[in-house]
Design brief:
The protein is an alpha/beta fold. The chain is built from eleven helices and 16 strands. The structure holds asparagine (ASN). The site of asparagine has 11 residues, from loops.
């Protein structure tokens, strides 16, 4: 069991960037500094009874806070290493992150920090801390409270009164404060009145806590486009698919197929997929439908995907699949082992 938070064992807050800490500039909102004072200033507006329930925390800024639309796998990796290196000194971690690619980062952190024995909570906001009616203060408060909850032992996302499994979350609204959802997995917890509640049995610690084994791999080789994301559209041609998959720099692909796991029964198109898997590329499919999973081969129209060696992503989010492909391809594993691990739930992602 981890030590509860205290002034000697505080929660670490890392500001990676995003609207939450942004300030106005002539070119529009941009990542601001001085986060420690600004966060404490915002939290000082909470009623005293809620302030009293916040854990002790220290704030650190990552080297260069960014708009998360610019994040790459190299940023996920840096964050994973920073957390892995210092986690032992803290009761838990809060990552303040831009919302645009928050789901990808949360998924990647979950793979990198397997066997986590304390909470790592990713949050952000749709409005800056100082904006009128900002959601930032409430999200930070929620994240801090869950980050000091020793029963929670996984990467989670705290947003708009809800706590989601990090590897199952998606940003589904571009404006509303309630921007995130976890289409195929129930909430891990939520705010109820002034309390934060965790739902027993839904957490990873109760389901599949393996031995702690951080997998902080080197994503450098994949940071520049080694994994691609292709959504099928009616009329997609084999040559279009080949334009992505035949490039030797591409080592993996997320395919967003139709419905329950279907693709056109077009031998030329399926031949492009088979050729890529034959070359050792890792191809995985999920549905374009935001809810539900796929069963490749349930329809004849999906059989070709199975024959071409495309792996089923079941009910995983596209973000969780892409981050998993990056994670597995960065490791010195043979093709068989990569495929086996892709199909194995590592952190409750499938
Ligand atoms: N563009 C911002 C970001 O992802 C959006 C936000 O944080 N609400 O960094």
């Amino acid at each position: 069991m981890t030590t509860p938070s205290s002034p000697d064992h505080p929660v670490l807050v890392l500001y990676a960037g995003g609207t939450l800490g942004m300030v106005a500039s002539p070119r529009g909102l941009t990542a601001g500094g001085n986060m420690d004072a600004r966060m404490r200033g915002a939290l000082a507006n909470l009623p005293p009874s809620r302030q009293a329930r916040l854990p002790a925390f220290v704030v650190k800024e990552t080297n260069e806070p960014i708009d998360s639309s610019a994040a790459t796998a190299a940023d996920w990796q840096r964050l994973g290493h920073t957390i892995g290196k210092t986690l032992r000194n803290y009761a838990g971690v809060v990552v303040l992150h831009g919302t645009d690619t928050l789901a990808w980062t949360a998924a990647s952190l979950a793979y990198q920090l397997q066997g986590l024995d304390r909470p790592v909570i990713v949050t952000g906001a749709m409005l800056p801390l100082e904006a009128p009616d900002s959601d930032a203060q409430a999200n930070v408060e929620l994240a801090l409270r869950f980050a000091s909850e020793p029963r929670l032992q996984e990467v989670a996302v705290a947003f708009a009164d809800k706590l989601f499994r990090g590897v199952c979350v998606r940003k589904l609204h571009s404006e509303a404060a309630d921007a995130f959802a976890s289409p195929n997995y129930p909430l891990l917890g939520e705010r109820v009145g002034d309390d934060t509640v965790l739902y027993p049995g839904r957490g990873l610690e109760a389901q599949q806590r393996g031995a702690p084994r951080f997998e902080l791999h080197d994503y450098a080789a994949l940071a520049d486009g080694g994994v691609v994301r292709i959504a099928l559209w009616p009329g997609i041609q084999a040559w279009q698919l080949a334009a992505w998959l035949a490039d030797h720099r591409v080592q993996g692909a997320l395919l967003e197929v139709w419905g329950g796991g279907n693709a056109p029964e077009n031998p030329e198109l399926l031949g492009v997929l088979a050729k890529a898997t034959g070359e050792g590329k890792l191809l995985a499919a999920v549905s374009q439908c935001p809810h539900g999973s796929i069963t490749i081969g349930h329809y004849a129209a999906g059989q070709g995907l199975a024959e071409a060696g495309v792996l089923s992503g079941d009910g995983m989010t596209p973000e969780a699949v892409l981050a998993k492909l990056v994670h597995l391809l960065a490791q010195p594993l043979d093709d068989r082992e990569r495929r086996r691990r892709f199909l194995t739930p590592l952190v409750g992602e499938r």
